[in-house]
Amino acid sequence: MSNIGKKIELGEKLGFLFEVGFNIGLLTYIKQNNIKQNYDDLYSQDLKQLKFSRIIDKLAIDERVVSDSNRKIIKDWVLFFLQKAFLSGLNFLQEYFEAVGIEKKYYKKLNILYYQCYFHGHNSLGTYTTKTDIEAYTSSLKQLGDIDNIEQYLNQYKGKGEFLKADTLMLVKYKDKKYIISIDYSIFAIREIQDLDNLHSVEVLKRILLKEIAYLRKKSVFASLGLDSKTPKINLSESLASYYKAFITKDKESMKMIQAGSYAYSFYCFLQSQNLLEDQESVNINIFGYSDRGISSLTLTNTEEHINILKTCYHIYTNAREEELPTAREKSLTKIKRQAAKSFTNGKEFFNELMETKNNNKPIHSLTHTEIVDNFLSPIDTIPTEISNNLKLDPKLDLRNAHKELIQRELESDKHYLFLTGNPGIGKTTAITEFLKQAKILDEGFLFFLLFLGDNPFFLLLYHSCLFLFLLFFIDFVYQFSINSFPKMN
Q: Is 118 exposed, middle or buried (0-12, 13-18, 19+ CB in 10 A)?
């Protein structure tokens, strides 16, 4: 795609190649499985114009790389991103179709009505420029049949946030249902030429791995964000437009998901304008922000509530300010401080003092702020009379023991499942273990499996390992129980 007049950084160039590799993987999967499609040989003709050696040479010239050893490093990294993206794309559609309940044996009922991607211009790093954007847009739209006044729609939908700018856009039909898939890509790993280390070095690979682990450890629960339309009252605020630029480099997947949502909304509006979607037709809309480190996705339908969410994505992306990153972050920080200050007594003064600490050269900062919190109940406080009366508890009980008694009641009831939640230190684990220590429970026997999880990927690895061992133990337990409990057959 064209970015005339804009200086393109190395990370963005490799991002273009990631997009190219991913789309090649998608197209390969479609061809391998003989899925019906409308683009014929459109993209195979484009791919014939891409030459790997020319891309390497162009990147080396742009980054002023002269030595053969450094050119070899560039070649390895380009190949790495292309292969990684290709394999990601190759697996993506299979996983997607499985997720929406379409088995491989039913692929013959699939029809890809529209597939949009680009291999010319900046996506080829300037090595394939004989095809213009308008030619690419026109050839893509021809998949949808004859469109009257096509020039009008080309002008309308080629701007920022409009669907003709999408990295990958698909309209898939399966039986009487349609699926819109919009994907926007980016990469984290490389920003400057100095980041390109020798991929054949064990120390470099180790450093890359540790960097990836550190990234995963510091991400919040909103990393690899996945939202499903079955979740009630999902919404996005249009005010996110003012934060979009500030966080686009540190929260790529979520920001790219919003960008993909903008394209999906634009495409949906275009399909409706062309009467390519019937009024009562069921449409699934899936938007993805995809990077070399993670994925954020949003699953929607064509209900009014969900279309409004896409409309909000469109508003956020198209109204995001074009400003320098430090300026955008400073403005966002000011807004955050202003809103956060409302949550504290004398919040403005508190935050001014807090921000002043960064100007201190001292290794340890000291700041005191006092708040009085009403209606707060600690675990050792006596429960309020209203609670004791409503729950029929001894009014002399403290919160911890009242919580314990309620758990005991539920565990001794006929209910099969208990969902237990509460603040840290309230006594959840203690209440369970006290219940299990009762003589009648010990005589009956039990299997107690407890695992604490966190955001740390090592904990996730531990979880899967423990789960595997637990399953092995459980299978052995059932087997031993069965052979000891039932008479042997002659």
A: buried
